[in-house]
Amino acid sequence: MYNIKESFYSLQGEGAHAGRPAIFCRFTGCNLWSGKEKHRLSASCQFCDTDFNGVDGQNGGRFQTADALAEHIAAQWPTNQGNKYVVFTGGEPALQLDEALITSMKNRGFTIAIETNGTLELPNGIDWVCVSPKTTEPLVVNSGNELKFVYPQINLHPKDYEDLEFEHFYLQPMDLSAVPQSNVIVSDTQSSTLKYCLENPLWRLSLQTHKMLNID
Ligand SMILES: C[S@@+](CC[C@H](N)C(=O)[O-])C[C@H]1O[C@@H](n2cnc3c(N)ncnc32)[C@H](O)[C@@H]1O
Ligand SMILES: Nc1nc2[nH]cc(C(=O)O)c2c(=O)[nH]1
Ligand code: SF4
Ligand SMILES: [Mg+2]
């Protein structure tokens, strides 16, 4: 069974594929935070901008089989249009995404992307892997297509990821407006991110463009 918080058709807002039409499938639950505000400051990941609990969002629900969920996702793609692209996110999608679902999506013509915190093994067959580190534990997923570091983080430094095997390195300013209680000292995360990119040109800036556009 798969638990889905929400799914929707929008533009990828972040990273190397920013601007690309995609269906987002947001799995319920995460291994680094309960999703409850009372646990935020004791969680391994404390700056999450996302509500990922329950199955009550738009086009959310419980799906008994991979084909049932794949059909639900595929039905949201515009009729008779190609370039089909699905982004599995969450919560932590690696808790639920499996080869059966990947096969079901491929059978429906989709290219498959994932947004993951990199702490859990991934199933085979994902076409685009975006890892966004959150903890000082070594990454389980230490290669992929893009590494997207939310900046700044108190105990985590971009330098420690530079030698990993990724095609693209992005720094994304931490959105503190999405975080009710915060430990972060820096308030202007956009300026500090911009400065870091200019001083360390391996890193490119990723802005959360969907938030500027007021879309999902
Ligand atoms: C909500 S997470 C879900 C996927 C996965 N659990 C992860 O952390 O990568 C989706 C993306 O949003 C980023 N993100 C979460 N909270 C953020 C914030 N407050 N500001 C900027 N990016 C944030 C994450 O780093 C990740 O790249
Ligand atoms: N438009 C849009 N782009 C996104 N890229 C990553 C997202 C996520 O929450 O994983 C996200 C999201 O929630 N919306
Ligand atoms: S950003 Fe990702 S890893 Fe962190 S709590 Fe949110 S869903 Fe979990
Ligand atoms: Mg998001």
From TrEMBL:
It holds the Pfam family Radical_SAM. Pathway: Purine metabolism; 7-cyano-7-deazaguanine biosynthesis. It catalyses: 6-carboxy-5,6,7,8-tetrahydropterin + H(+) = 7-carboxy-7-carbaguanine + NH4(+). Mg(2+) binds at T50. GO terms for molecular function: 4 iron, 4 sulfur cluster binding; carbon-nitrogen lyase activity; magnesium ion binding; S-adenosyl-L-methionine binding. Its EC number is 4.3.99.3. Substrate binds at L11, Q12, G13, R26, T89. S-adenosyl-L-methionine binds at F47, C48, D49, G91, S132, P133, K134, Q172, P173, M174, D175. Coiled coil: none annotated. One of its GO terms (biological process) is tRNA queuosine(34) biosynthetic process. [4Fe-4S] cluster binds at C30, C45, C48. PROSITE patterns: RADICAL_SAM. Keywords: 4Fe-4S, Iron, Iron-sulfur, Lyase, Magnesium, Metal-binding, Queuosine biosynthesis, S-adenosyl-L-methionine. Residues 17-216 form the Radical SAM core domain. Binds 1 S-adenosyl-L-methionine per subunit. Binds 1 [4Fe-4S] cluster. The cluster is coordinated with 3 cysteines and an exchangeable S-adenosyl-L-methionine. Catalyzes the complex heterocyclic radical-mediated conversion of 6-carboxy-5,6,7,8-tetrahydropterin (CPH4) to 7-carboxy-7-deazaguanine (CDG), a step common to the biosynthetic pathways of all 7-deazapurine-containing compounds. Belongs to the radical SAM superfamily. 7-carboxy-7-deazaguanine synthase family. NCBIfam families: queE_Cx14CxxC. Homodimer. This is 7-carboxy-7-deazaguanine synthase. It comes from Marinomonas balearica.
